[in-house]
């Protein structure tokens, strides 16, 4: 069963460019993963501090493996200094 994930991130105003650089690297690397079907990053039109990921994963196992990648661990490590609040993450199935 595919996993549909939406993540909403709100950067600190002074961290927008640093966060975007890390997120762009995540997109570049994640799209190469076997289990990744879709990994799109969007930035809010009115609030440049808001980033939204739309992801589709072939399986929970694939998503779990993704979360162990070095570039994801790097983001998790740096996130508290870059984000205004914890990321909002929604896991869903297609209905």
Task: Summarize the structure in words.
Helices cover 37% and strands 31% of the residues. The chain has helices at residues 16-30, 60-66, 70-82, and strands at residues 3-10, 36-43, 50-57, 88-92. A four-stranded antiparallel beta sheet has the order 2-3-1-4. Strand 2 and strand 3 (50-57) form a beta hairpin. The longest helix is centred in the first third of the chain and has 15 residues, at 16-30. The chain is globular and about 40 Å long. The relative contact order is 0.31.
Q: In percent terms, what proportion of residues is strand? A: 25-35%
What is the mean predicted local confidence, pLDDT?
A: 97
How many strands, what sense, and barrel or not for the largest sheet? 4 strands, antiparallel
The tally of beta strands, per DSSP, is 4
CA radius of gyration is 13 Å
Structural class label: alpha+beta
Unreliable sequence segments:
none
Helix share bin: 25-40%
Order of neighbouring strands in the sheet with most strands: 2-3-1-4
Task: Give the end-to-end Cα distance, rounded to a whole number of Å.
Answer: 12 Å
**Distinct helical segment count:** 3
What general outline do the C-alpha atoms trace?
globular
List the secondary-structure elements in sequence, H or E.
EHEEHHE
